Structure formats: structure tokens, C-alpha cells
Amino acid sequence: xxxxxxxxxxxxxxxxxxxxxxxxxxxxxxxxxxxxxxxxxxxxxxxxxxxxxxxxxxxxxxxxxxxxxxxxxxxxxxxxxxxxxxxxxxxxxxxxxxxxxxxxxxxxxxxxxxxxxxxxxxxxxxxxxxxxxxxxxxxxxxxxxxxxxxxxxxxxxxxxxxxxxxxxxxxxxxxxxxxxxxxxxxxxxxxxxxxxxxxxxxxxxxxxxxxxxxxxx
Length: 217
Prior knowledge:
Layout: E1 2-5, E2 8-11, H1 12-30, E3 35-36, H2 38-45, H3 49-57, E4 69-70, H4 71-82, E5 88-93, H5 97-103, H6 106-110, E6 113-120, E7 129-130, E8 133-137, H7 141-144, E9 152-155, H8 162-171, E10 176-179, E11 192-195, H9 198-211
Parallel strand pairs: 5-6, 5-9, 6-8, 9-10, 10-11
Antiparallel strand pairs: 1-2, 3-4, 7-8
Helix pairs in contact: 1-4, 2-3
């Protein structure tokens, strides 16, 4: 499975590693490091140098052997590849405890994502302002979302009729969904869903705590 780019097929695993590379590069930049060699960066992200060079080669040339990779320029280039060099508006569905926590999470803005609009079904939340964003009713999403130019949404709502909600979002122009709800949904054609199951991650950690030395790689 992958994405098309300039007639190339880029694997999603490569995209995920590129995001990891950028995170490490940002840390290097904060520490005042201007250049980094491929073997150094590969060691920091726990991949082989060959894998790192293959990943970067999928998107063009990033540096040279003698000077290494220019850290800040690589950050800018990867940001442009991801389309996060300018802020993208995102819709947040659900203004409960999790939704409000995500609303105040500064990491979204730092990575190029701005939660521009909130929707909920709770009449007590609708009409209120959270962190400068007014909450609208989910029933009005078809008329509200176009005003904010969003193509991505975060699901932090209840599981009731979740598939129907995703279908409506797709018809309203949402192309990508980050789903924090512990319920599987099926994206419509041309739509992408990334599931984040926090409880499953905790179960994995619990298992590793008990049997960490016995699992397969």
C-alpha cells in the first residue's frame, strides 16, 4: 500500500519514517546542529543507513557525502512534501474531555495543523466557545465545514452512528480522518482513515511489561 507521487509509488512505511526523520531533525535544529551525516541520522531513528538513503532518494536529493544533510533545509523540504509548510485547517468532532485535550495540544500547530472548527451533538456545548473556536452542532456539518476550508477531521466523539458520520464527512469534502474512537469505520472512495486506539497501545505495553523478553521481532 502506498501513495502516488510524480509517477512514483511511495510506501506508507516510507512516509511514516519521513515524519520520524523530521521530528529528529527538528530536535537537532533546536540544538544548533546545521548538518548531519546519513549514518548519524540513521542511528538516531534506529534504521540502517541504506534504508534512510533509499527513503530520501524516493523524494529527490537532500545532501552530499562530504557535508552531510543540511538540517534546516531538510525540515523545510519534508514539510513541503507533507503539505504542512503552511497551516491546514482541521475539524474536531467531539468537545468532550479528549476533544478539549486535543484542542489545547500545541503539537498540532507546531506540525502545521490548526483545529479551526468544533462540532458536537451535546446541546450544552453547542454555541459555546472553546479556546477561541465556537462549537457547532453535528447536524449542521454540511453547511458549516465549507466555511472553514477543511479537508481533514479528528474524531473524538462517541461511537454511536460513527460510520454514518464518516460517510457524511466524506460527502462534505473531508478526505482524511484521524479516528480516536475505539470503533472501526470504512472510508468512502478517495478517503483515508487513521485509527488511534489508545487502549490497544496500553494493552501492548502491559503485555511487553509482562513478557517483553519472549515476543518475536
